[in-house]
Structures are given as structure tokens and as C-alpha cells.
Amino acid sequence: MNYLLAPFRFAISVWRSICYIIAGRPVIAPRYEYERREAICAYCRHNQDGVCGLCACFIGAKILLSSEQCPDKPPRWLRLT
């Protein structure tokens, strides 16, 4: 896991959220989607005490945003459009 890239990835997440706001899309994922993502990430091998081992993001924050998707290849869950 590369923690040096975490601030850059955070900035990208903020930018995507701003783009969602401008487009009139919901920034926060619906409760059912949040819970689905949470269940998927809870058993993921990349989950390292609440931090994603692939992107160094806090999983609780990442799954909350509609504009984010799982960084695994292929993604385990996708951004909402």
C-alpha cells in the first residue's frame, strides 16, 4: 500500500464529488448501497483495519460517496451514475 498517494487520491475523490454536485447527482450513496458496499468490504482481503490496502482510503468514507468505486480489478462495486 502506498500511503504517499493517499492525499492525491483524496483530492480526486473530492473533485469527483464536486462534479456530482455540479451535475445535480446525489453525493451520498443511498443507505441500501452503503450497506451493500460495507458488507462487501468487510470481508475483502484488502481491508486492513478499515483502510483499503489498494488505494489507502478510509473504507468508511469511500463507501459513503456515490462517486467512488472499488479500486480492485475488476471492481467489487461501482460508482453510481
Overall 3D form: globular
Number of domains: 1
The major sheet is characterized as: 2 strands, antiparallel
What is the ordering of alpha helices and beta strands? Answer: HHEEH
Structural class: mainly alpha
Unreliable stretches covering 5 or more consecutive residues: none
Across the major sheet, the strand order is: 1-2
Radius of gyration: 12 Å
Outline the structure in words:
This protein is mostly helical. The protein has one domain (3-62). The chain contains three helices and two strands. It has a two-stranded antiparallel sheet with strand order 1-2. A hairpin with a 2-residue loop joins strand 1 and strand 2 (51-52). It is globular and about 35 Å long. The termini are far apart. The model has no long low-confidence stretch (mean pLDDT 93).
SSE blueprint and pairings:
Layout: H1 6-23, H2 31-42, E1 47-48, E2 51-52, H3 59-62
Antiparallel strand pairs: 1-2
Keywords for this structure?
81 residues, 42% helix, 2 strands, mainly alpha
What's a concise summary of this model?
Helix content is 42%, strand content 5%. By secondary structure, it is mainly α.
